[in-house]
Design a protein that fits this description.
alpha/beta, Rossmann fold, 2 domains, 5-stranded parallel beta sheet, globular
């Protein structure tokens, strides 16, 4: 280790400790309101600290919307909630240009920003709107900007979308387009509470006491943590493992497995590899390390890949899920391979 690296090591360790404390503080603050769902909370926070977008799927009434509201309270950011319905139009999200009258009596066209012009966007029940309306979020989710006519409006940073959706089997839902699904860093499946958690939920919601999340960190601090996460290390063999894991989802490819060729129609895009690496870095930091490991990549593989794998008819007929495919890939893809 060089002299410069030795001098920087204590500062890096201090920043890593500060990051873990901030992450845990937000996690604990949300835990004051949200009962259980610890893995879901950590997954959402992982997305927030990497700068991505998150999709939460589950039946109505499981606390998805409440979780996002608590997050908005714990972060000192401007919050906006959009309730997606079948009659929602793109202009209801982006905004519209209206005719206004100036003080001197002239009429001018003026743009009125929609609810997308915030920092935390809760897209509630996003799959209840038509694909045309869903597409209004695409540019904002990827480029953090909105184009109206010939004008491009930059959105205030940090910006991210947290969307909830009901299981697609429910009546009155529209599947999200693949291009939009790919823009979510994680897809998290929210399950039902167990007996103890449900009893605690009743105690918190049916008694006189009322608990709310308090502000923990602000926007500039969150942006600094995002930059710090990207500076965390990942060894070439670990990064190569993430690359091969993503390539193994592509049927007919060099690294495709038997399960992939049998059940997968389309595999993950490069965004899947980006999600694996960034989230693995956070896993390492939370574990007290300044580097990502093979185990870190494996721990978040389902959340990063399940919505990027499109199954074929044979998989649907046999009841094979994307999670099952990812599980098989984790068993089949070796952590390290000999270089040719």
């Amino acid at each position: 280790m060089s002299t410069a690296e030795q001098a920087a090591a204590p500062q890096v360790a201090q920043l890593a400790d500060e990051f873990r404390q901030a992450f845990k503080s937000v996690e604990d603050e949300i835990g004051k309101v949200i009962v259980g769902h610890t893995e879901i909370v950590r997954g959402v926070l992982t997305v927030v600290f990497t700068g991505g977008n998150c999709l939460l799927e589950g039946a109505p009434g499981l606390g998805k919307t409440m979780l996002v509201r608590c997050l908005s309270q714990a972060l000192d950011l401007r919050f906006s909630r959009i309730q997606f319905t079948p009659d929602l139009m793109p202009a209801d999200i982006i905004g519209t240009t209206i005719v206004t009258e100036t003080d001197d009596g002239k009429r001018v066209m003026q743009f009125q920003p929609g609810p997308i012009f915030a920092q935390i966007i809760l897209a509630d029940e996003i799959n209840r709107a038509t694909p045309k309306t869903q597409s209004a979020l695409l540019e904002a989710m990827q480029e953090h900007s909105v184009t109206v006519g010939r004008t491009i409006y930059r959105l205030e940073e940090p910006f991210f979308v947290l969307a909830t959706q009901n299981p697609i089997e429910q009546e009155g839902t529209y599947p999200l387009p693949e291009a939009q699904l790919d823009r979510f860093l994680f897809k998290l499946n929210v399950g039902y509470s167990n007996r103890q958690d449900l009893a605690e939920i009743l105690r918190r919601t049916t008694e006189a006491r009322h608990v709310e999340c308090q502000k923990v960190i602000d926007g500039p601090k969150l942006l600094a943590y995002r930059k710090f996460v990207r500076q965390a290390l990942i060894a070439p063999p670990v990064q190569d493992y993430a690359v091969r894991l993503v390539l193994s989802t592509i049927p007919g490819g060099e690294f495709a497995t038997e399960v992939t060729n049998k059940y997968v129609r389309f595999g993950s895009s490069p965004r899947g590899a980006q999600g694996l690496v960034l989230a693995a870095k956070i896993q390492g930091l939370l574990d007290g390390r300044y580097h990502a490991s093979f185990e870190d990549v494996q721990a978040i593989a389902k959340a990063a890949l399940r919505h990027r794998i499109i199954l074929n008819f044979e998989a649907e007929a046999e009841g094979v899920t994307c999670d099952h495919v990812v599980e098989e890939l984790l068993k089949s893809v070796p952590k390290q391979v000999d270089e040719a």
